[in-house]
UniProtKB/TrEMBL annotation:
It comes from Candidatus Woesebacteria bacterium GW2011_GWA1_39_21. Residues 5-125 form the NAD(P)-binding domain. It comes from the Bacteria. Belongs to the NAD(P)-dependent epimerase/dehydratase family. PANTHER family: UDP-ARABINOSE 4-EPIMERASE 1, UDP-GLUCOSE 4-EPIMERASE. This is UDP-glucose 4-epimerase.
Length: 155
């Protein structure tokens, strides 16, 4: 049975995605910092889907809490990334918060994904359109990191 990790699973989109995956028979590991979103869906998934569903309170801005989740949860096949700050007005008033949560947080997550050898990710973050250049740089850095690692491994 395939195991999928969903970030932002307490949120609007993440909770729906989690439910659909569970219904289709996937195992789901939910990750959320519980800052926003709703508690009820996770409780319901837990009672309905039992051992197929687990959730962890972890923050993308705290690499040690992420590392803990990835070391507890082995054999993850894919990551669906929905954790984000995504209020348009707030992002205009406090862009630093959005850069930190959406760009740096995503970078931390991707670092952990690479370290765990996971090759499948769905990245669903409309809010990052605002930081197009940063995202582009981020993806370039990740490709570069992968290439460096491959080169080192072949040496
Ligand atoms: N809602 C929409 O109509 C819509 C449409 C297209 C794209 N999106 C994108 O989907 C993503 C999720 O949107 P949403 O509407 O579900 O938002 P939401 O605010 O309902 O959910 C986001 C979830 O992420 C969690 N979270 C935020 N920062 C975190 C962090 N650092 N670590 C761990 N968890 C964190 C929050 O606690 C929350 O549960 C966003 O990137 C958004 O841009 C949303």
């Amino acid at each position: 049975m395939k195991k999928v990790l969903v970030t932002g699973a307490r949120g609007y989109i993440g909770a729906v995605a989690t439910y659909l995956l569970l219904q289709k028979g996937y195992k789901v590991v939910a990750v959320d910092n519980f800052f926003t979103g709703y508690r009820e869906p996770l409780k319901k998934f837990e009672s309905k889907f039992k051992s197929k569903f687990k959730y962890h309170q972890a923050d993308l801005n705290d690499p040690s809490s992420l590392k803990k989740v990835f070391s507890l949860e082995e054999n993850i096949d894919a990551v669906l990334h929905y954790a984000a700050s995504c209020l348009v007005n707030e992002s205009m008033e406090n862009p630093q918060k959005y850069f930190q949560n959406n760009v740096v947080g995503t970078h931390n997550l991707l670092t952990q994904i690479i370290e765990s050898g996971i090759n499948n990710i769905v990245f669903h973050q409309r809010a990052l359109c605002m930081a197009k250049q940063s995202t582009f740089q981020l993806m370039r850095n990740i490709r570069l990191t992968r290439r460096i690692r491959t080169d080192l491994a072949s040496e």
